[in-house]
Amino acid sequence: MSTTATVENFPNSSAEPQENYLNARYGVRSWLLTLDHKRIGLLYLGTITLMFVVGGIAATMMRLNLLEPQGTLVEPETYNKLFSTHGIVMVFFFLVPSIPATLGNFLIPLMIGARDVAFPRLNLLSWYIFVTGCLLMLYVVFTGGIDTGWTFYPPYSSSYAHTDVFLAAMAIFIAGFSSILTGMNFVVTIHKMRAPGMTWFRLPLFIWSMYATALIFVLGTPVIAVTLLLLGVEKLLHVGIFDPALGGDPVLFQHMFWFYSHPAVYIMILPSMGVISELITAFSRKRIFGYSFVAFSSLAIAVISFLVWGHHMFVSGQSVYAGLIFSVLSFLVAIPSAVKVFNWTATLYKGSISYEAPMLYALGFIGLFTIGGLTGLFLASLSTDVHLNGTYFVVAHFHYVMVGGAVMAYMGGLHYWWPKITGRLYPDLWARFAALIIFVGFNLTFFPQFVLGYLGMPRRYAMYPAEFQSLNVLSSAGASVLAVGYVIPLIYLIWSMKYGPVVGPNPFGTKGLEWTTQSPPPTENFLRTPIVTEEAYNYETAPEPEVVRV
Amino acid sequence: MMGLTQLAVHSIAAAWLDLPLQPPAASSIASSVDDVYYLLSGITIFFSVLIFSIIFYFMIKYRRRPGKTYEPETHTSLFLELSWTIIPSLICVVIFVWSSALYVRNSRPPANAREVFVIGKQWMWHIQHPEGPREINALHVPVGENIKLTMTSQDVIHGFYVPAFRVKKDVLPGHYTSIWFKANQVGTYHLFCSQYCGTNHSEMIGWIYVMSTTDYAAWLAEGEASESLAQQGAQLFTRLGCDSCHGAAASSAGPSLAGIYGKPQKMADGSTRVVDDSFLRQAVLTPSTVHVAGYPQIMPTFTGQVDEQQVLQLIAYVKSLGAQERTNGQ
Q1: Which of A77, A163, A381, A389 has the highest number of chain B CBs within 10 A, making it the mutation to test binding with B?
Q2: Which of A155, A209, A450, B37 has its CA 20 to 30 A from that of A351?
Q3: Could you tell me if the ipTM is greater than 0.95?
């Protein structure tokens, strides 16, 4: 029942790395003109890591400033630019592309047994488009900044803000095309490029979640593009679209913005759910519990996510009836997420569980995502949302989902596939230590914010009443721990690229076509096209883990 | 369970951490909103503890041991899948129905509410009482009375938020929104702007002063020297020449405004609209969009000639005409 391609695909696994996608060609040109999905994945990895650092510095400065009620560091004007930069950079230039553009690009062809994505040139183009958006955004950030928040609500953004709203909107507009192209590429790749025998229900769950994400990319991103374009038109030409002084409707913008931006939340979390399904099965050496329920819950989330945008607008003056409908749909979208959590938990049952760093991230994800998901119910529920909307409760909730969820999974995935990507292992002890630091730092940062929100502290406040100080100090202290937690992996992962011990094709002894080829894979991924004869996660036929010590 | 959670959390916070955990609950709806909040907190704690305990148990029981043989696996169980789909759904239905019923009940201002007008502008709250007094970043209200706020913005979107009352609503330019509350505890409470509105957003804050009925009457009397909002509106009505078409005497150019407020009005396109604050605001600023049946569409726009404050004065005046009419009729 094992894959027949296994032996032929790594002829001399214990020797020094043979020719692979990293050493096949050298030089800047070989990277900038590459059509290899693996190299493009790494180009994205470098780009979004840089953007993460920019967004992270902004966050650190915000938390520093909030140590004292009157602000310790910057004027309110600068504070507003910091949280806007943090939000825009982290959402549009880190989280949205994070897992899909790096791990997705690297792994989709490997996991389905393909040589590359369906449109390699389009793939490279989408990276160039993304970089153009990044550069434009960085230009805005470093030449005057942007102070509208990541939500760009008019008429503030269109008629009152003095910062360069137009260029910032265009940066996101441009980066959006990279999402659309990547989404199209993935959909076609998953439909048309699967290896012989790789049927839909033999696909790893990561592929299912990437497929659902790609659908949202293709269907949702054009809406934010149109919305920002209209905002730009109003700003430049003074055509009344959103500003009531010009005859427009500001609430229309909010509808259009959230029609994309709520599904965008699932662009960020669905890929993480895919990663977690892989990690949980890999480190408990067991089939996923309820494969089809986990797979279809991804699609259910993708569909329902388009119907819940109004829960961001319960206090915007929208009608009571609209509120009721959006509320019930928002409760509904919680169910498939709950189903996933229960299935992951059940997967551990009778497993053979080990606790390498990726598994620690995965377990951390389940804990934080559970809290993030359950606190979402407070905001789907109408009468409590009226009180909590626009407060730190919302900030805490979405950080539990996007950082506690999406970033934990991204880190877990990066650690799991790192030996496949680089052919080398990082020091596992440091990695476990960092995972723990991140988990503790994260909770210390964001849990107090739930309480702050319930007490009534509004978000986006440069200054705040003195009675909120103790909780803010606690949160800032946590943020410093969290920052350390993110710096440690940056150091040892870079270290491991040169000094990490060389590993064979399958260091963790896990299932999946990507582990049947050498590490790092050859440019063409597989020396011979694999033929799939079994379902995903059939751990009865899995090889033993390699013993590698750092 | 709610009470217990609340009690436990509070005693821990009070005894060990000295942290504030609950905002004052000073309105008629606050404690019922808190009930939903504590139910949700209970559910969150219950499911988190449940899932974490199961995971920890499995983590220890099924940790990897050398030489372990694989046990027969369960790959799926329809019974389990259905239970953990249906049970959370039922819990969600209960919360939805309870919370929504409360929301619907709270969304309708009671008919007898005392009305106060709010204008938000970068970066202050301008409060206008119908009796005449104006306030900046402060709102004095009597305890135990229903207060309805009719709100608009002069520039960008703001948010009127009183945590102690558990009420919040965006304040939009070019549009009226409203909220109501009944304060049930004398005291001073935070007023926050909850919708980001630019540089000094975090300084667009103020205080709600909830006063005893007698104190409030005294406070109001102090400010009585100024004219009431309706009186100011009456003067403006004359100064802008509105009375030439909308005066007491019947005119072919425009409808008389006496008694018109709160009544349905036939429009030229055949529809019927009730004359409310939004209707009158539209009629003053963009008269071409409110064409009343039977009259020529000749009214000029007053956009640029009157500000939001003056529109509110005119509305108060028209409203006062309605009140007189009803009194006369009885």
Answers
A1: A381
A2: A209
A3: no
